[in-house]
Amino acid sequence: MKIIFKILFLFLILNSSAYSACNFKAQFGENKAGFEEKIGGRSFPLQYPGLEVFPILANDICPNEKLDDIGIEFKFLNDALVAINLVALNDEKNHVSEKLTLMKYAKKVYGKFDTTQNPKSYSGFEVFEKSNEFAVYQRLPNEGGEIDEQLYISTPALDTKLMEFYSKMETELLESSNEN
How far apart are the first and last CA of the chain? Predict the structure, then answer.
């Protein structure tokens, strides 16, 4: 009887931790005012009016995930949450990405992907689709050699709105620079 209980207990623990993900305490489409009330903090308006970001350290939102030196950007377009972006807060030596924290989190939550024999040398991106949301894991070096590592999460409809917004803003910027 004790053996059956131990096996059942071990099975439950392994299953629950294998599928655990951060509870971001926010829902896509949620109003900014409701988010501010729950989370607190201060948004930072970006270069385009209507787009704001709430940057918060991941360990403040998901302490059980051990996402050290990972930031979460909650992106609001016209006061509605449209995307969540986890970002490795790298320094010039890429200490955060070298720990593989964000990669391991993406694999645990969204599924395994091929990172070759040496995951630290992985460069590329992976797209994961889950019911009505998707995630894009990206790990790419920039021109200075710093690794840009992110996990972008959104829904197809909200991502389309965000991309249309960016496209419109860039078009307006291009047109205003051509007028000068």
Answer: 81
